[in-house]
Design brief:
By secondary structure, this protein is α/β, with parallel strands linked by helices. Among the domains are: 136 residues, Methylthiotransferase, N-terminal domain (Rossmann fold, 3-Layer(aba) Sandwich); 112 residues, Transcription Regulator spoIIAA; 57 residues, OB fold (Dihydrolipoamide Acetyltransferase, E2P), CATH 2.40.50. The strands form 6 sheets. Strands 3-2-4-5-6-7 form a 6-stranded parallel β-sheet, with helices on both faces. It has a 5-stranded mixed β-barrel with strand order 17-18-19-21-20. The radius of gyration is 23 Å and the shape is globular. Bound molecules: S-adenosyl-L-homocysteine (SAH), iron/sulfur cluster (SF4) and FE3-S4 cluster (F3S). The site of iron/sulfur cluster (SF4) has 10 residues, from α6.
Length: 471
């Protein structure tokens, strides 16, 4: 057994990172068996689940329709806020019931960021003994060995490393979409924002090699993919750990040169966003004019306590630079309310900045103290009621501006990548504009998978309606 240790997880430079290759397990222990994977968390977790699916299918498992008819259920968890925990433990209760009644042989596994937390693993070992195996984010590629060990020995397995894993290329992947693909460019994070657990659960920053990324994109393009989204917690810091003179702007140019139709990237950190990056985004047609640029707070005092390393003025300068250089751009953000010490005045400074920026949209969160992070040890001065009140007031302003931004698109003709049937109305299809607005489209199913012209006929806060325009 190898349990997580948060102090070890904070250390850097403990291990040299090896670049190795995933070797398929030959014995088909998934033959005639079905799997179900539930994902909580960010795009990186979603992409990890695509690798989990790929590894399971490589040894014969088939996808189950639901967890009720699966032989193995894996929960790929998120630790970013406390409510993520509650959902996971709730679902574990449902799975226990299935094991106790209809399917005693069901294998239940837990992985992802919660698996990297000491408190979680201790709780599982003491109270959730029916969880058959736990593995962490750093040894995802070793998942099949952990499962095999469980099957062979019938002993519960806990394999969580508290130092960063290797960068493993070639892990089999079954992607959810055949048009749009996630591509990891970097793992981990070294920023240590004081509220955030990610540097502990994902380890130090490790960039993938540029040629591996570019080759993956070329391969996706050959397979017919129209869009790639480059993933990392701080994509703007790409390359800093392995190259002297190659950064995100170079990578974006190289990926753009592959000729793939659409390139996106998340998440940007204002700290590492350079002028060259803005210029390359502005100058390349296949780099989409959509930037997610987390602000977190509009108060310099709180930004400092958060260890974000930019001021509200620096943020605004970068924001305006992107707006002026990148044509028809949309910019979204993340904001936390109720950080320890946040006063009404600090909160109003956040509202002020939102009023200046007029974001296209935002994810807003109430501060949630996370295990072992500095902010969790600060005096918690904002009550839950105040947090909810601020969140509510903030969301009203955010929604007003999303609505306004969407209204500007009324009657315009925009390019959409059509990704599938509309969730609201199965006679329609849906897709995304270049600047990442969701459009429900009046058009035939035959345009799914294509980039087409759409005329916007109605706008709402969170989506648009449009009509397909034949070329
Ligand atoms: N790497 C990205 C963010 C990843 S986490 C960045 O640096 O911006 C996504 C969002 O979750 C963060 O932007 C932040 O707004 C929110 N978040 C992270 N930790 C949180 C916490 N402890 N409580 C509330 N929200 C949090
Ligand atoms: Fe967390 Fe900050 Fe790293 Fe983003 S940059 S993952 S918020 S520590
Ligand atoms: Fe959650 Fe881990 Fe992503 S904590 S947000 S799944 S990196």
């Amino acid at each position: 057994m190898q349990k997580p240790n948060m102090l070890e997880a904070k250390k850097r430079n403990q291990h040299e990172i090896n670049y190795t290759s995933y070797k398929e397990l030959k014995d088909k222990f998934g033959k005639n068996k079905k799997y179900f994977v539930r994902t909580y968390g960010c795009q990186m977790n979603e992409h990890d689940s695509e690798k989990i699916n790929g590894m399971l299918e490589s040894v014969g498992y088939k996808k189950a329709e639901s967890y009720e008819d699966a032989d193995i259920v894996i929960l790929n968890t998120c630790a970013i806020r406390e409510n993520a925990h509650d959902k996971v433990f709730g679902f574990l209760g449902v799975l226990k019931h299935i094991k106790d009644t209809t399917n005693p042989d069901l294998l239940v596994g837990l992985c992802g960021c919660m698996a990297q937390e000491e408190v979680v693993v201790n709780e599982i070992l003491s109270k959730y003994k029916y969880v058959d195996f736990v593995f962490g984010t750093h040894n995802l590629d070793n998942m099949l060995n952990v499962i095999k060990e469980k099957i062979d020995t019938n002993k519960n397995q806990v394999e969580v490393l508290s130092y960063e894993g290797d960068v493993v290329e070639g892990v089999p992947t079954v992607r959810d979409s055949i048009y749009s693909a996630w591509v990891d460019i970097q793992y981990g994070c070294d920023k240590f924002c004081t509220y955030c657990i990610v540097p502990y659960t994902r380890g130090k920053q490790r960039s993938r090699k540029k040629e591996d990324i570019v080759n993956e994109v070329k391969d996706l393009k050959e397979k017919g993919y129209k869009e790639v989204t480059l993933l990392g917690q701080n994509v703007n810091a790409y390359g800093k750990d392995i190259y002297d003179d190659y950064n995100l702007s170079n990578l974006l140019s190289d990926v753009s040169d592959t000729g793939i139709d659409r390139i996106r990237f998340v998440t940007s950190h204002p700290w590492d966003f350079t002028d060259e990056m803005v210029d390359v985004i502005a100058s390349r047609d296949n780099i989409m004019p959509y930037i997610h640029l987390p602000l977190q707070s509009g108060s310099d005092r709180i930004l400092k306590l958060m260890n974000r390393r930019y001021t509200s003025e620096e943020y605004l300068k970068l924001y305006n630079q992107i707006r002026s250089k990148v044509k028809d751009s949309s910019i979204t953000t993340d904001i936390i309310v109720g950080f320890p010490g946040e006063t009404e005045e600090d909160f109003e400074q956040t509202l002020d900045l939102v009023n200046k920026c007029k974001f296209d949209g935002a994810f807003t969160f109430a501060f949630s103290p996370r295990e072992n992070t500095p902010a969790a040890r600060m005096e918690q001065t904002v009550s839950e009621e105040e947090k909810m009140d601020r969140l509510h007031r903030l969301n009203e302003v955010i929604n007003k501006y999303s609505n306004e931004a969407n209204k500007k698109l009324m009657d315009k003709t925009v390019k959409c990548l059509v990704i599938g049937e509309s969730e609201k109305d199965n006679t329609k299809v849906c897709g995304y504009t270049e600047n990442m607005k969701l459009v429900n489209i009046d058009g035939p199913h035959s345009i799914i998978g294509k980039i087409v012209n759409v005329k916007i006929t109605d706008t709402k806060s969170f989506s648009l309606d449009g009509k397909y325009i034949e070329e």
